[in-house]
Amino acid sequence: MTHHRDVQVRELSLAFNDLDFCYLPRAAGSAPSHCADFLCTVDASRFFSNGGHHIVFALDCEGGQGGYNPHCGPILRYGKNLWSAARGFIIFGDGAVMAEGWNGTAMPALAVIADTVGAGFDPVRHPVFTLRITAGYRRGAFANSMRIEIRLGESAKGALLFAGGIDGAAWGLSWRGGSKAAMGGIAAGFVPPVATGCVEELLPRSASHAALVMSRFKFRIHPPSTAP
């Protein structure tokens, strides 16, 4: 992890097998009614234009690749294995946003998120944006829900470009006392370990020049009324 002018910055590159990700430090909470809150500024100016397919933001990451899941072998970046279970959002180059529930299978839960703003979010035209994700557990103001806001530029107070969310028991989780989050990107040329003898081949693929710059990221669990 690098720092520039006291701002956390992490550059993710798809140079190896069209996939990169990193974890944030685990956040701890003190009450089941609290919610997970993730804030991050994204510079995607070298991502979609270089073949990147979608950007990933995952909360409540658990488990790892290998064994009995579809990949059958670990997917390691920075010494850490890709999660097998999580929930969060993915962002595409055309501005589409989807909720994803990773469940250790080849059929994760996916749902299109309707934009309630109508500002026309376009990460190609406006590649620098700041997003906030708020996700509840089984109790509290955000119980069984996930929310996402995307704002123009490097500030959480920038012009609102996209806002939406999803509700339902499938999108909430039982309280665990803490959560681990991750951010990453992937392109269409990714080859899973199951196709290469359960050992990932870290070779250049379709988007070897695609990169994401993540900065100002914060992840914590707190009462819903507490500002980030």
UniProtKB/TrEMBL annotation:
Q: What is this protein called?
A: Uncharacterized protein
What is the superkingdom listed in this entry's lineage? Bacteria
Source organism per entry reads: Acidovorax delafieldii
